[in-house]
Amino acid sequence: MPLAFRASQQLQLGVRHQQDSLSRYLAEEDRVVKALLDPSQLERLGPGRYRYAVSHLEVFQLKIHPVVELSTHLEPGRIDLIANHCQLEGLGLVDDFQLELKSWLVASEEGLEGEANLAVSVSQPPLLRLIPPRVLEATGRSVLAGILRSIKSRVGQQLVVDFERWCQEP
Predict the structure, then answer these.
(1) Which of 15, 46, 66, 83 is a plausible cystine mate for 111, CB 3.0–4.6 Å?
(2) Would the CA dihedral through 148, 153, 154, 160 be positive or negative?
(3) HEC per residue, 106-163
(4) What is the pLDDT of residues 45-83, one digit of tens each?
């Protein structure tokens, strides 16, 4: 029986200056993605397509290194970021790992609003068979929530700083 866990995070971020420019900023896809995610772990595959090497995660002394292929979708005043494919590097024990990410940011009158939903489904690796599935699922939810909190923090800091820098460019 596969383990399944999910987490979601909502964002409402006030922007003090030049809110009317947020829509144009969100259209700068490559720049926005690099502000949302660590550029040193990001590779652009083509227009609207990226590969992101997530920082190593350690769960029950197993080191996991997810590599996620992402795509973006732009609409006026909105950017969506979706995971298309994910593989685990450094853990050859799991062949049915599935990750789902659906997230969006939209420019509003007050600033930015958004939501991210992250879900994982995976069989229980043989090394972890002695640990009850409920414990593994609770740990999985905690790990996913931590990932989303770090992205939210990055939006609240790095994205806003980059937006302000973008507004000052000629």
Answers:
(1) 15
(2) positive
(3) EECCCEEEEEEEEEEEECCCHHHCCCCHHHHHHHHHHHHHHHHHHHHHHHHHHHHHHH
(4) 999 999 998 776 666 656 677 788 999 999 999 999 999
Retrieve residue 92's tokens. Answer: 């050859």
Q: Is the pLDDT of residue 170 over 70?
A: yes
Closest CA to 57 of 123, 150, 135: 150
Residue 101 β-bridge partners: 118
Kindly state the tokens that stand for 33.
């993605």
Lowest-confidence segment of 10-14, 23-27, 35-39, 134-138 by average pLDDT:
134-138
Q: Where does residue 61 rank: exposed (0-12), middle (13-18), buried (19+ CB within 10 A)?
A: exposed
Quickly tell me which residue has 């820098």 as its tokens.
165
How far is residue 167 CA from its own chain's centroid?
A: 25
For the entire predicted model, the pTM comes to 0.83
**DSSP secondary structure code for residue 82 in this structure:** E
